[in-house]
Specification:
Blueprint lengths: L7 H38 L4 H4 L1 H24 L2 H19 L4 H29 L5 H29 L4 H4 L1 H15 L14 H24 L4 H23 L13 H31 L4 H8 L1 H20 L2 H19 L7 H28 L6 H33 L4 H4 L9 H17 L2 H8 L8
Helix pairs in contact: 1-5, 1-6, 1-8, 1-11, 3-5, 3-9, 3-16, 4-5, 4-8, 5-16, 6-12, 6-13, 6-15, 9-10, 9-16, 11-14, 11-15, 11-16, 11-18, 11-19, 13-15, 14-15, 14-18, 14-19, 16-18
Length: 479
């Protein structure tokens, strides 16, 4: 879409698409954050240990990781409208099923289906914004989507905590249904479907299968490592299978006529560095965000509602600053903004690792504000930089790649945090039975706090790589 060819009608349509996609991101974010707040409650209700209850988050991420690149590429090839709309309907049905689950196994299974719907939404949402926005306003538009996502993020903990206290955890799933139906209807009315491609195109289903298998095997092995040990045959086997399928995925993408992921994209330094900085930041952020609810609820005694109010500070900052950061990236590029943003996030996460049994509420909220400030400065410019490096007919693949990068980072962070936390609790004297029961951590607050601090400091150290890759991504001229 050349600037000179843009009409007032085009601008109006691009705004409607932006609003529709933003509403969908609010839905996804509310669901994700409400479930994070619910983890201690789910562990108590189902009498499940930390490593098992983590799969409520992990299976959703794995479904997104395995499918988002394929669905994004299918959108590039065949059109995005109906993949996107059906995604909302799948999300609504699976949310209702999650709310009716009678066991943690059922909940995990229905979360897989919810991940399928989430992948259909996220694979095509930002791509729709990208292809419908004037190039000079892309950073601003993506900044708006980031703001919308964090409206959901800010609503999720408070709404989730209130709903859990007032009506029970099942209603955090039931309440997403009206929003999902509204998104599907809005998308049907607003989005334009392009004419189908007359060419016969081969879809790279083999690559999709290898990618899904790689991530499932790797995350499962990582999750079981602290419980079964590095010498366990099953753990070793899953790591080997993950390595083998990763090799097969790369080989398949090199040979495929229409690959899910064009490896040629990684020849661009900006594209590669931006994705690597995103990976390290999301992995550390996800790892710490999973641990902090257990500190607040199990150790400090906050209710889910109170915990939600503590966690919303960062999202409030993002809502205000994300569009500003997006506009700044249109003007100045992403390198400085992303480097500064990642550095501020590291400082915030360091303060979380330094919390004690005597920390004040302000000391708990301040790190959330810093993390929100850092993410606002980092995310919109980083997304804009990635999307600006690819031709528009590959926007879905590029959008899928950024989502895959973020979700792989998030899933790995969750699995690694559980592994390190389990090791630390054992090293500090808890028995295997105590380690497997988060409710028992309350009886050993000093042990939990020492393990929590060690785990968070260690994970935060890896975020330094995000600053490094942000700094070496290239100058404004290369963007």
């Amino acid at each position: 879409m050349a600037e000179s060819d843009i009409t007032d009608q085009d601008r109006r349509h691009s705004r409607l698409v932006l609003y529709q996609v933003s509403l969908g991101l609010v839905l996804v974010a509310i669901n994700h954050r409400a479930i994070q707040v619910a983890l201690p409650t789910l562990a108590h209700v189902f009498h499940a240990d930390l490593s098992f209850i983590q799969w409520v988050l992990l299976v959703y991420d794995l479904a997104v990781i395995g499918l988002v690149l394929t669905l994004g590429r299918l959108g590039d090839l065949f059109g995005r409208k109906w993949i996107y709309i059906i995604g909302f309907l799948v999300f609504v049905v699976s949310s209702a099923l999650c709310g009716m689950a009678q066991s943690p196994t059922q909940l995990i299974a229905f979360r897989v289906l919810q991940g399928v719907g989430g992948a259909m939404i996220m694979a095509n949402g930002r791509a729709l914004v990208t292809i419908n926005s004037p190039p000079s306003e892309l950073g601003k538009a993506l900044g708006f989507t980031s703001m919308a996502f964090h409206v959901g993020y800010i609503t999720g903990p408070t709404l989730g905590g209130f709903v859990i206290d007032a009506a029970g955890w099942r209603w955090i799933f039931f309440l997403t249904a009206p929003i999902g139906l509204a998104c599907a209807y809005f998308g049907w009315k607003v989005l334009k479907e392009r004419a189908p491609n007359d060419e016969q195109i081969k879809v790279d289903f083999a690559g999709a299968a290898y990618l899904l298998l790689t991530n499932i095997c790797f995350i499962y092995a990582l999750n079981r490592l602290p419980h079964q040990g590095a010498r366990d045959l099953l753990v070793i086997t899953f790591f080997i299978v993950a390595a083998a399928t990763l090799w097969l995925f790369i080989r398949t993408e090199q040979r495929a006529e229409t690959p899910i992921l064009s490896l040629a994209l990684f020849k661009n330094r900006l594209f590669t560095a931006a994705n690597l900085s995103l990976f390290f930041l999301t992995s550390t952020q996800s790892a710490i965000s999973v641990l902090i609810p257990f500190y607040l609820q199990n150790l400090m005694g906050f209710t889910p509602t109170q915990m939600g109010w503590i966690l919303i500070g960062g999202s409030a900052v993002i809502i205000v600053l994300a569009p500003v950061a997006g506009r700044l990236s249109d003007r100045f590029g992403s390198r400085i903004l992303c480097s500064v943003g990642a550095t501020i996030m590291i400082i915030g996460q360091y303060l979380i690792a330094s919390l004690t049994l005597r920390s004040t509420v302000f000391q708990m909220i301040l790190p959330q504000l810093l993390i929100g400030l850092g993410w606002a400065l980092f995310n919109s410019p980083n997304q804009s930089a990635i999307m600006s490096t690819v031709p528009r007919d590959k926007a879905g693949a590029a959008s899928g790649m950024t989502l895959t990068t973020a979700r792989i980072g998030g899933a790995m962070g969750i699995a690694i945090s559980g592994a390190i936390m389990t090791y630390a609790l054992g090293a500090n004297g808890l028995t295997p039975e105590q380690i497997e029961s988060p409710a028992s951590w309350t009886a050993a607050p000093e042990v939990f706090l020492k393990s929590f601090s060690f785990t968070t400091h260690l994970i935060n150290a890896f975020a330094i790589f995000s600053v490094l890759f942000s700094a070496v991504r290239g100058s404004r001229r290369e963007e």
